Amino acid sequence: MFKSKKTLSKAAVLAAVPILALTACGGSADGGGDAAADGESLELTLAHSYNEDQPQALCGADVIKEEVEAADVGLTIEIYGASQLGGDADRIASVASGDVDIDIQGASALGGVYEPISVLDAAYAFDDADHLARFMESEEGMALIESFAEEAGIQTLGAWSAGARHFTSNEPISSPEDLEGMQIRFPGSPQFLMNADAMGANAVEVAYEELYLSLQQGAVDGQENPITNIESENLNEVQDYLNLTSHQLNTNLVIMSERWNELDEEQQEALSSAVETAVTEVTDCVATDEEETLAEWQEGSDWEVNDDVDVAAFQEQTVSNLEDALEGESLEAFEAIRGTSE
C-alpha cells in the first residue's frame, strides 16, 4: 500500500496513490515532456462548474494555474469555469477520454463512473474537514482513490472540502422531525437522494439554475447547500431560515486524465505542489468566507440563522439509515470513513 508523502493541515491530503502508481507505470525522469525539452510550453485545460468568485475557483483553480506557471517548467493552464465545457457528467466523460485534462468535481458526480467514490458525499460521513484529511491519509482512503483510478482511468491529484452543507427553509429545521412534510430540493445524484431518505427529507429534484425561482415561487419548501453557494445564489432573499445542520461536507476532487503520463518528473512535481497549495488555500478561503458571511447574516435582518440544531440526533438517525441502505464496497468505504472519526 502506498503512503502519502506529507500531512496536510485542515485539508484533504493530496492523493499520492495514483500519482505514484502512474510514475511506476510509465512516468519517468524523462517523462513525455517533449514540449518542455523543445523550449515550448504544454497547455493543460482545467474545467469546473463554479462562479469566478467562489472559493473553488478563486482559491482553487486560479491558484493551481498561478503556481504551475510560476514554477516555469513548461506548463500553462487554461481555465474554463462556470460549466463552459459542459455539466458534471459531460466533463467527467471528457476527462476519461482525454478531451479535458483537469477537472474539479464533486464526489457524488464521480459515482457515475465508480460508485464507491460517491460515499465521500454521504451525509454525516465526516465530522469536519480534519476528519476528511484523516480518512484520505489512511490506508482505506488511499485504496479507495487507487481503485477509482483503476476502474475509471481517472487520476486524483487532490481533494478538499468546500464547507459543510446546511438546510434553508421558511420554517426552522432543528431536528429530524422538522423535515416531515417538507419538500426539500436535493441534487439528483443517487448519493444525495440516499442522504435525503436517510435524514427523513422528501427530496425534490430541481436544477441548480432553477433553484432561486423554485424557492421564490414556493415550488419547494427548502434546499441544502454550503454557505458559499447559498450566498452566491442570494437564497437569503427567498428563504427565512438558515439551519446549521452541517449534514454533509461539500467534497471536491481535482481529477486528471491520462495526460499526466505526458508530463516529465519536474512538471509532475510542479502540478502536484500546485494542487497541494490549492487544497490548503480553498480550505482557508472557505473558513474565512463562512465566518464573515455568517456574522453578516446574524447581524442583519434578511433571515434568521438557526444554530439551535440537534446535530447529534440528525447524525445518529442518518448514519444508522445509511448503514442499512449502502451495500458492498460503498458500505465498506462508509464504515472506513466512520472508523476514522475521533
Distance between the termini: 23 Å
Number of helical segments? 13
* Approximate shape: globular
- Most strands sheet: 9 strands, mixed
CATH architectural type of the largest domain: 3-Layer(aba) Sandwich
The helix-strand sequence is HHEHEHEHHHEEHEHEHEHEHH
Helicity, as a percent range: 40-55%
Q: Structural class of the secondary elements? A: alpha/beta
Give the percentage of residues in beta strands. 15-25%
Whole-number radius of gyration? Answer: 20 Å
Could you explain how this protein is built, in words?
By secondary structure, this protein is α/β, with parallel strands linked by helices. It folds into 2 domains: 16-162 and 250-282, D-Maltodextrin-Binding Protein, domain 2; 166-248 and 290-328, Bacterial extracellular solute-binding protein, family 7 (D-Maltodextrin-Binding Protein, domain 2, 3-Layer(aba) Sandwich), CATH 3.40.190. It is 44% helix and 19% strand. It has 13 helices and 9 strands. Strands 1, 2, 3, 4, 5, 6, 7, 8 and 9 form a 9-stranded mixed beta sheet that branches. Strand 8, helix 11 and strand 9 (304-306) form a beta-alpha-beta unit. The longest helix has 35 residues, at 265-299. The protein starts with 15 loop residues before the first helix and ends with a helix. Mean pLDDT is 90; it is low at 1-31.
